Amino acid sequence: MYPGRVSDTEDLRAASRALKDAITGLSKALGQGLSDVGADVGREIATELNEAARGLTAELSAASGGAARRAARRSAKAEQTRADLLAAAARVFSERGYEAASVADLAQAAGYTKGALYAHFASKEELFVELITTVSAASPADGGDRDAAAREPLAPEQDLTDVVLSLEAYLYALRHPEVRPRFAPIAQRQLGDLAARVHQQRTGAAGEPTRDDRETALGIASCGVVGGIMEQVLPPEWQVRAAVERLHERLVRGGEPAA
User: Fold this and answer.
1) Which of 61, 76, 91 is the last residue of a domain?
2) How many domains does the chain fold into?
3) Cα distances (Å, whole numbers) of residue 191 to 73, 94, 241
C-alpha cells in the first residue's frame, strides 16, 4: 500500500460522518418543526451542515489529488522499468545473440522478474522489436534536426553494441521471414535518412534523394557495418577507421579517389 493511503481514507470517512450527522440533525429538526426548535437552532444546524459539506468537499479533492499523485508515481515507475528492460536487452542481445538469450537472462540483467518483463512485453520477440525500433527512432528521420545531421560525418564513431544489434536484427529477419514486414520500415527509415544526408552533402541543399543518393547510402551503410566489425578484428596497423572514412568520402564524391 502507498504511504498515507490509510490516513487519507480515514479523513474522508470522518468528513462523510460529519456530513451525515449534520443531515441527521436537520432531519430531526424538520420532524419537530423548525418553529418549535427556534431560529437559532435552525441556523446552527444549517451552519454545521455547510461546514460538514465543505469538509467533505476538501477531503474529496485531497483524495483525488492523492490518487493523481499515486497514478503519476506508478506511471513513472513503469516507464523506468521499461527503460531498464530495454537497456538490459541491448546488452544481452549484443553479447549472446537473440536466439541464445532467454527471458530469464533478460529479466535478471535488468534486475526484475520474468513477470515484470511480461507485464511490459508480450514476448522476447516483442522486446527485441521494440529495442530495434527505439534505437532506429533516435535518427533525424524521426523528428530530429536533419540540417544538423547533414553536417555530421557520414562515418561516425560506432559503438560496438549498435553494430552487433544491427547485425542481429537483420540476421533475425533472415531467419524469420514472417517478421520481415516489421523490420522493413526500420531499414527504410535508416537508409532514407542516410540518403537525405548524402544528397545534402553533395548539393548543399535539402531535397528528395536521387537513386544514386540511395545507392550511395546503401554502400556507406554496408561499409560502416563491415568496417565496424573489421575494426575489432584486424590489428591497429590496418587503420580501419581511417579507411572507412576515406571510403565514405569517395562514395559521396561519386567514386573519385581521395587526393
Assistant:
1) 76
2) 2
3) 39, 22, 21
pTM for this one? 0.61
pLDDT one-digit tens code per residue, 13-36: 665 666 666 666 656 655 555 455
Residue labelled with grid coordinates 540476421:
171
Backbone angles phi, psi at 113, to 5 degrees: -90, 165
Give the whole-angstrom CA distance, residue 100 versus residue 123: 15
Q: Using an 8 Å Cβ cutoff, are 136 and 189 in contact?
A: yes
Closest to 85 (Cα-Cα) out of 50, 110, 53, 113: 110
For cell 553494430, what's the residue? 163
Domain extent for 163: 137-253
Q: Which three cell numbers stand for residue 4?
A: 498515507
Cell, residue 76: 513513472
The alpha carbons of the chain give a radius of gyration, in whole angstroms, of: 32
Confirm if 250 and 216 have CB atoms less than 8 A apart.
no
pLDDT (0 to 100) of residue 190: 86
Closest CA to 94 of 236, 201, 237, 232: 232
Using CA atoms, how far apart are residues 153 and 33, in angstroms rounded to an integer? 90
- Residue 125's pLDDT band, with cuts at 50, 70 and 90, is very high
Task: Report d(CA 198, CA 212) in Å as an integer.
Answer: 10
